[in-house]
């Protein structure tokens, strides 16, 4: 290798990288354009290779130290910038991307909601007419507590809020992912979970109404339910997307339909997780709190539901790159 010719050829690129690094370090990586960030990454890889070559050829400590300094500075900026871009993408998804996919798949969510409501209505109707049905659907300890003592069962959360909140989050997330996974069975597993949850809600609603406990019961449910129930319906939509791709791929090949619908389902689940985490915190600390008036709990539930509806209806104007659609 002709060292002088190699140095003459490579030095302009080293200087270009140094200039970009100086700007990134003084003004922040966000001061660089997308093209400049890409160029910085390319030059970083080039200089890393040049450093390895300089060490192998033993070109002298001054050149090696210079290239080593550029490599260390470049590493810091490239991977710091990558993390910054990752967080920016996450923020964009939560701000715009999640509402976009919810709007795109609203028909599946509506169908999941319909299945749940039909099951709840049937359970409500049978709950008023058939005692054996209540015994079959409602856990026996809840049934006896409500009918014999005239109490709700949420008081057990008070005093163990952190533990209860963690358990609630874990349970809700497992239900959501099971609802998604049910789509692999052609959507039948998803429909079963939605139907089963609807039956339980409807039966319990009938039970508390028969014992004049409906007002405190729905006061407890409304704050966290405003987020938790929509999240489950969205998980149902994700499962139904998978089921449709398997059973009714339409004009797509089955693999292509599964890939397309699977991407939408994954985006739905990515947005569902924070909803269920927030709902778990509310259910653990706010919903069962006896110091908070029931009227305030109802208002908070309505406020959260309205905010969620506004969020899902958010007008979509920008892409993740910041360009208009």
TrEMBL record:
InterPro entries: SpoIIM-like. Keywords: Membrane, Transmembrane, Transmembrane helix. The keyword Lyase does not apply. It comes from the Bacteria. The chain crosses the membrane at residues 106-126, 173-195, 215-242, 263-286, 298-316. It holds the Pfam family SpoIIM. PANTHER family: SLR1478 PROTEIN. This is Stage II sporulation protein M. It comes from Thermosynechococcus sichuanensis E542. The lineage of its organism: Bacteria, Bacillati, Cyanobacteriota, Cyanophyceae, Acaryochloridales.
């Amino acid at each position: 290798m002709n060292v002088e010719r190699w140095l003459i050829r490579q030095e302009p690129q080293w200087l270009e990288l140094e200039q970009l690094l100086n700007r990134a370090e003084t003004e922040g990586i966000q001061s660089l354009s997308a093209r400049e960030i890409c160029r910085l990454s390319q030059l970083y890889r080039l200089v890393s290779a040049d450093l390895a070559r300089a060490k192998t050829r033993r070109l002298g400590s001054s050149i090696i130290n210079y290239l080593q300094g550029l490599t260390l500075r470049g590493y810091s900026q490239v991977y710091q910038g990558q993390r910054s871009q990752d967080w920016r993408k996450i923020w964009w998804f939560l701000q715009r991307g999640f509402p976009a996919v919810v709007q795109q798949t609203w028909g599946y969510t509506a169908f999941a909601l319909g299945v749940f409501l039909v099951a709840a209505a049937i359970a409500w109707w049978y709950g008023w007419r058939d005692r054996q049905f209540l015994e079959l659907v409602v856990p026996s300890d809840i049934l006896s507590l409500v009918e014999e003592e005239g109490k709700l069962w949420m008081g057990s959360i008070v005093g163990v809020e952190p533990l209860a909140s963690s358990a609630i989050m874990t349970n809700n997330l497992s239900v959501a992912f099971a609802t998604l996974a049910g789509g692999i069975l052609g959507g039948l597993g998803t429909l079963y979970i939605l139907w089963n949850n609807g039956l339980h809600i409807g039966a319990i609603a009938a039970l508390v109404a028969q014992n004049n406990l409906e007002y405190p019961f729905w006061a407890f449910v409304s704050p966290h339910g405003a987020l938790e129930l929509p999240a489950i319906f969205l998980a149902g939509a994700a499962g139904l997307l998978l089921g449709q791709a398997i059973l009714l791929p339409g004009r797509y090949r089955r693999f292509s339909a599964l890939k397309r619908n699977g991407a939408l389902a994954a985006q739905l689940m990515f947005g569902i997780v924070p909803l269920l985490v927030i709902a778990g915190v509310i259910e653990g600390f706010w919903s069962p709190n006896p110091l908070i008036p029931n009227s305030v709990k109802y208002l908070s539930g309505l406020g959260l539901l309205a905010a969620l509806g506004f969020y899902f209806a958010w007008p979509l104007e920008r892409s993740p790159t910041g360009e208009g659609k």
